[in-house]
Amino acid sequence: MLTIEIVVTAKIKLLPTPEQATQLDNTLNAVRDGLNHASKIAYNNNLLSGFKKLQKLVYTELRNTFGLKSQMACNVCSVVAGSYASMKANGERTLAVYKKPKLQYSYNRDYSFLKNGLVSIGTTKDRIKLPFITKGFDQYFDGSWKYGSATLVKKKGKYFLYISVKKEIEPCKDTEIVNVVGVDIGMNFLAVAVDSKDSMLFVNGREIKNKKASFMRTRKSLQQRRTASSRRRLKKIGNRENRWQQDVNHQVAKALVEFAGNNSLIVLEDLTGIRLATERVRRRDRYYSVSWGFADLRSKIEYKAKLKGIHTLAVDPRHTSQKCPVCGHTERSNRNKKTHTFCCKSCGYTSNDDRIGALNLRQMGIEYRHAVSCKAGSLQEQGECQPPLDVTTRSLECKEAGVA
Questions:
Q1: Strand, coil or helix: what is 378?
Q2: Where does residue 190 rank: exposed (0-12), middle (13-18), buried (19+ CB within 10 A)?
Q3: Which 8-state DSSP code applies to residue 234?
Q4: 30, 280, 327, 385: most buried, per Cβ within 10 A?
Q5: Average pLDDT, 10 consecutive residues per value, the chain (404 residues)
Q6: CA distance readout (Å), 87 to 81, 94, 95, 100, 229
Q7: How far is CA 121 from CA 109, 125, 140, 377, in A?
Q8: Does residue 312 contact residue 291 with C-beta atoms inside 8 Å?
Q9: Do 112 and 119 touch, CB atoms closer than 8 A?
Q10: Would you call 13 helix, strand, or coil by DSSP?
């Protein structure tokens, strides 16, 4: 059976002794100095982004001057070369500066897990064995995942190891899909989902908009001051907002995947280019429409779905909130954005506009599922290929309490 590879970053917290912490600090500082030295050499050589060429120029100096071990020196060259390759692709021609120390490790070379429950990692002095905590990431250390490269990071006096883990997973076959879930993404409701049984999930976005407004007011106030302290404060607030947004997307993605369940198909909107569509959004709502991480939310839904063997499908979202799911009539005036309601001008069907979008997305998933089943060939040969399920008026007349 066809398998898919899942790659996830798992985090463990290291618990070093004071002596071990000193070794880790010395190693991180040496690597940071080595990164900045290699970065200057690469910059002075016309933004050198070739790993082998850069390694020939700085490898010996990284070993002798900065005291880095062989693999550490190679990893420093790899990081710097990667940074300049990315900068070249983005059209940037500036010196890459590494302020926060971090160290990349290769599994079974620089770090490894021991049978006694400790992790062994290399430093500029020697290897040290440390206890660690896997809180929140225990499922990635059950022996079924393969370990890859890792990054040692120090945050607020604490040491963390970010490990890339991967696993081969067998998703359910297309013919085994028994549940289709349409998911409409927006800001009034961050996500609205409807499955094949007409069960619904609403994730209210009003608190999210209020929180975003609070961040915006604070940033505006600090930007008007134009002082060094206000700029430092702005950077901290930006990082805090990004962490909060990431956490919200994780929670929403987890809730949607749990709502879908096994043997499901989740149909999402392909919101590529949403930032270029601000002219179609009211001025006061443009910030919320383009600042939320919709692409990040979609990626989190997709990778969490893969972990459960659930299929995902991204479709064109055009007219999904303007098309009547009962009669199929499509008209812009069907939807009232101010009241977030939908009323079909042809048959009069009325509901919440985000729920309408989720219903139409679900119908797209049903049609896709039907096409895949027919393409399999077995049903066609037996003459049993049935037309796709349709969203009937009866199924739409489910409970809508609290929807509008």
A1: helix
A2: buried
A3: H
A4: 30
A5: 81 94 93 92 80 87 91 89 86 86 86 91 91 90 90 91 90 82 87 90 86 86 88 88 90 92 89 59 60 83 88 87 88 86 89 90 88 64 45 36 35
A6: 10, 8, 10, 19, 29
A7: 9, 11, 19, 54
A8: no
A9: yes
A10: strand
